[in-house]
Amino acid sequence: MKNKVAFVYGDFNILHPGHLRLLKFAKESADYLIVGIYSNQMAGSQNIFDETIRLESIKATSFVDESFLLDTTALKYIKENKPDIIVKGKEHENKENEEIKLLESYGGKLLFTSGEIGFSSLDLLQKEFDGINHSNISHYNAYLKRHRIDNKTLTNIIDNFSDLNVLVIGDTIIDEYITCDPIGMSQEDPTIVVSPISNNKFIGGAAIVASHARTLGAQVSFISVTGEDDNYTYANNYLSDLNIATYLYKDASRPTTLKQRFRAHNKTLLRVNHLKQHNINNQIEIKILKDLKKDFSKFNLIIFSDFSYGVLTKKLITNIQKLAIEHNILMVADSQSSSQIGDITKFKNVHIITPTEREIRLSLNDFESGLVVLSEKLQKKSHPKYIFTTLGSEGIMIYNSDKNDLLTDKIPALNTNAKDVSGAGDSLLTCSSMSLAMGANIWQSAYLGSIAAAIQVSRIGNIPIKKEEILKELNTI
After folding, report:
1. Cβ contact 394:413 at 8 Å
2. Full 3-state SS string of the chain
3. Which of 22, 89, 420, 431 lies in the 20 to 30 Å Cα band around 326?
4. Alpha-carbon distance values, 133 to 77, 84, 167, 386, 460 (Å)
5. Which pLDDT score, from 0 to 100, does residue 121 have?
6. Interhelix angle for 424-437 vs 442-456, to 10°?
7. Sign of CA dihedral 32, 258, 226, 303
């Protein structure tokens, strides 16, 4: 059976609740909704915002299946494409509508709607995705004084990131935030009812680590495994646009990992994960190692970003670490355990690891010892040089295995009003390890990583941190 297509067109200068109601009605009236946004040329004097901004606003709504810039009259488009339904606002019902004769000629319909009451302003719902609130980021002067850290030293480290060539390997994740309007409580059962308004996709997992490294200035190569699906295309295009040398190996036995968060009024109501956690097969392992060996010596830093979804197998880790040691390449690692169970101890002899307290306890099966004792046990088991135990709102504890220096220190969370804590550890790991690779000491590296984490939690979703953002924060020291 042919899908019923609805078509809506207009300038859409400011996407307000009335537009959302109209688009929702149009989508519910058909199987497929197409929206035409008049281009700058067609909109003429009615154009307040540039066509790209207006198009992006429409694409962000969950009701729209397809949108494009309309460079011709709506009548011409309707004549050529013959949509089943045209939907217009109720204010047009008693006016002359030139589409009617054309629609009647092929059996199409013209519908009018004022939509349903109940939507909050999209601007209010979407403002949580706005940029950084720098006023919530503050510096820990006692730490800076204790380790004789100054603005100039940290700035020089960041400025030299462009000299780095970084390899990131691990699990690709796509994070999707679905912004909802809360409708109320179901009368049939005690269930919260929401209506999706818009969705925003972000690169996550090891892919955001690679993105951070690139936007901080390094040359970056990224290796991962994905499914054969639309999210593979999204990830590949996104990373390629950042000029990251991207090697995504397709595995038909798994989807590209997708994590959806349904949010209303700045709160996450529900998370839905679409993933498989089995190890990649031997053929993919062999292919990755073969491709890696071609030009391995160019790297200054290797970042293992492990989410325990099957990419970083024991064979891959062992062989890559062997190559890194042969070429004297600095290695760092993170192995996350949230809904899944990871094991940070599988990464041996790396320079930095960034586990949470829970991840250390799980890997050591020790739920009683204090943090310093846990760090000592972890150091004896897998021999990392430095351990950054991430403590959420309490910041990080730094464990230093160098007996000629301070054993431990702590940096509190530099952001006192986090919007979204997901991704904080990734930004900490990326910026800290790049700093260490540039010759910074561990205390300088940890502080720069903490600044990156403070920036990351200032906004919703994983957005790559730019070098300029770090430099801006350093100017406030």
Report:
1. yes
2. CCCCEEEEEECCCCCCHHHHHHHHHHHHCCCEEEEEEECHHHHHHHCCCCHHHHHHHHHCECCCCEEEEECCCHHHHHHHHCCCEEEEEHHHCCCCCCHHHHHHHHCCEEEEECCCCCCCCHHHHHHHHCCCCHHHECCCHHHHHHCCCCHHHHHHHHHHHHHCEEEEEECEEEEEEEEEEEEEECCCCCCEEEEEEEEEEEEEEHHHHHHHHHHCCCEEEEEEEECCCHHHHHHHHHHHHCCCEEEEEECCCCCCEEEEEEEECCEEEEEEEECCCCCCCHHHHHHHHHHHCCCHHHCCEEEEEECCCCCCCHHHHHHHHHHHHHCCCEEEEEECCCCCCCCHHHCCCCCEECCEHHHHHHHHCCCCCCHHHHHHHHHHHHCCCEEEEECHHHCEEEEECCCCCCCEEEECCCECCCCCCCCHHHHHHHHHHHHHHCCCCHHHHHHHHHHHHHHHCCCCCCCCCCHHHHHHHHCCC
3. 431
4. 44, 46, 31, 31, 11
5. 42
6. 150
7. positive
pLDDT tens-digit map of 430-455: 999 999 999 999 999 999 999 999 99
Identity of residue 353: I
Place of tokens 């339904």: 85
Enumerate domains of the chain plus CATH numbers. 5-119 (3.40.50.620), 125-474 (3.40.1190.20)
